[in-house]
Amino acid sequence: MNTTVPVNEEISRPLEESLVICKQSSRLMQKNLQTGKLMDAFRNCSISLVEMRNNDLSPKQYYELYMYTTETLRRLGDALLETHLNGTHHLMDLYELVQYAGSVLPRLYLMITVGSAYLETPKALVKEIMNDLIDMCAGVQHPLRGLFLRHYLLTQTRKGLPQDPDHDNADPTKGTLMDSVRFLLLNFTEMNKLWVRIQHLGPMKDYVRRTQERNELKVLVGLNLVRLSQLNFNLDTYKNEILPAIVEQIIECRDPLAQEYLSEVVCQVFPDEMHLETLDIYFNTIMKLNRGVKLTPLVICMVNRLTAYVQRECEAEASDREGSVNQTMQNLSLEDQSSGFENKICPGDKVISPSLAIQEVLWTYIVDVINARNGIALGDIVQILSSILNFFLQCYPYQTQYADRVFQLINERILQQASFQTELKEKSLQKSLYSILVLPIVSFPSFSYCLNLPNFLPVFRAQPNNIRYDIAKLILDKIIEKEQLISDLKDVQELFGVISVIIKNNGNDTVEDLKTIAILVHYLYNEDPQVQIEILRCLKDNFVQAGENVKYLLPVVVNKCIFLAREFRLFKCVDWAEKVRVLWDFVNACIVILYNHGDSAELSLVLYLFAAEMADIENYPDFAYEFFTQAFTIYEESALDSRLQYQQLLMITGKLQKTRNFSVDDYDTLITKCTLYASKLLKKPDQCRGILHASHLWWQNETTEETVIFRDPKRVLECLQKSLKIADSCMDQITSLKLFINILEQYFYYYDQRCDSILAKHIGGLIDLTEQNMRSLLASSPNDLIANDPNAYASSIWETVGGFSVDNLRNHLEKTTDLAAKRSEDERWARIFST
């Protein structure tokens, strides 16, 4: 294949053909190097380099060809350096030799290859070679070829450029750090010009395609700035030499793609400490960029960079002591916040010198950027504010005035502007505002921090219901997750002003969230009972807005209030007795609301019984009597089935039996009413058992406390006899027998308790009657028994799945009488079986 191309003539061939020529030339060059034929190696390498003048290649294809060709050049450079070190050839001589190559592009590639190898030698004339190479590269002005040529120059001279300022005065021929800076800046400037010129090659219809191709090539230009950042220069050099030169090129190129990309690279590659000293230059630069440049990513990039810098430095400083800056902020307690932040040192002050006033500087420039671009989108403004808010929260958490400025700007210049009302309804913007409101919540475990931001709540209230609902739910989860106590009444009021959106939402999907609010009540606590009652009043006033869902919220308030009554007594504050009476009135008011609006009769009854029990324990018999009265009222008014009636009557009986502080008349009135209710139950077995349980109301158990117990043996006997009468009237023999056995057990109990009205002859007669009924049952035919449907006459508490067998009843009776017979050694018990 004839690969000879006239000097400096353009070529046009497919990439595949160019690669074939390069591979063939590369193999020949490798053989020449192995045999020591250096001139032939140069000639074959030049043949490969001629393909770099191919006009038919796209930037992506040209890059592929470039990568293969430069790999060949690197092998050539390594071989030439080796010949120099072993004394075969001097690289300076070879550097002059390759300058006689006939074609400009191959000549320059060869000069860079030989020159960069020479720069790595100990006695190299570094400054002279650097200046020569950078000047010679100006000979290629084709945008694409010149861009890749200078990129090759940049990569090959990476090791040879002087980088240590300590050696600047050692040998003038070696060059100085500033020579390297000027070298890289000049190369950067020329590469950027070539990169921008690509945009204007060809017809306008290919403008978008060229923009995409330039976007793929931008890293070639940005590598210059990366190399610059790796030099060991000081702040003065950066501020007075490097940054002004870069800024000048960014502004003068007037290309939106180049301006945006290069500004971002400046932000990313240079040290954070230098950014802190040059924020004015950076922000003044981006405000001078073309209007087509998006400033939002550039502002956010710098703010996020400084935020990460403070976090990183604080974590490094605190790694051996207290932990990371994030952990420090997460450990902010309510006590810390209530005592103020004046004496606390912010993470930002530990890392950044307070003399820089970085908070004020950043905020000033943020506002300037927003004001400088009247056409900046509202969504972009919100994103910028989100980044600066995160900076304030992470770096200056104790200086809440800065974070509040963000919410103030949102409130005054966005939410209250009529021109923005349509945009504020867009979901994307609502999502961005949600992210801003969430930042202080997720950054700190305590909602009290948000309350230190006066403009937080106005911004929150301006959001639509769905956003406020999600934020309120997040606040609830955070408080419970971190187990943060809120003790200040004002904080509680502000908190429920936020979560009221959940309380007022009466949908079924809010039930779980309402239960979470009920859990939250346990974290609202003040050690002063007088403040705590005000907190509970605040809760009640908010919970009544839940409508029927109040049944999920008020019970916990009732419970907290009941236990608070004991704290009032123990605290012995001024007028504590009167305040406790007010507290019991408050309990009653809460349960009335629950009963009237919550559709929760059963729950209300349970709460009344609990309140009555606690009021009796705390020796408030008048309130206990009232609570029992209300419980009876609910029992009467509620439309309950027989099973539920029976179970509720058992609860009332159990609570009444435990009371110890009623007067005799009040107690007698209550237990008489309870016994009367038992006698009016629908089913005979329920009546029997209800009265049987009510008998215990007339015979209270002894306790360790010094209290007067109520006992009336005569009324106990009347209840047992009434139960026997009802049991005997049951038509079902099995049900009747079961009731007889239960009554017999109660007779044994009272006899053991030495109840005077229970005599041995009564028990003996009942045993005979029960055994007689058992014999009658055994003699009956199964077809005569109504027990084929065991639930027909069964008691409400009996689960008679499959029914009771007669054998089970007989065994039950035998065990009951046998237990009593075993105590026959006692004369009292022996009388039972001797009658």
Topology:
Blueprint: H1 15-35, H2 38-50, H3 59-85, H4 91-97, H5 104-119, H6 126-136, H7 143-156, H8 177-198, H9 207-229, H10 235-253, H11 256-269, H12 272-277, H13 279-286, H14 295-318, H15 325-330, H16 334-338, H17 347-351, H18 358-372, H19 378-395, H20 400-415, H21 427-443, H22 448-451, H23 456-461, H24 465-482, H25 489-503, H26 511-520, H27 529-543, H28 554-571, H29 576-597, H30 601-617, H31 621-637, H32 642-658, H33 664-679, H34 684-694, H35 713-729, H36 733-752, H37 760-779, H38 806-821, H39 827-834
Function: Plays a role in vesicular protein sorting.
Family: Belongs to the VPS35 family.
Organism: Schizosaccharomyces octosporus (strain yFS286)
Give a structural overview:
It is found in: Membrane. Plays a role in vesicular protein sorting. InterPro entries: Vps35, Vps35_C. It is a single chain. The protein is mainly α and 835 residues long. The chain has four domains: 1-124; 129-140 and 150-290, no CATH class; 294-326 and 345-463; 475-731, Serine Threonine Protein Phosphatase 5, Tetratricopeptide repeat (Alpha Horseshoe), CATH 1.25.40.660. The chain is built from 39 helices and no strands. The protein is elongated, with a radius of gyration of 47 Å. The model is unreliable at 1-7, 332-339 and 783-803 (pLDDT under 50).
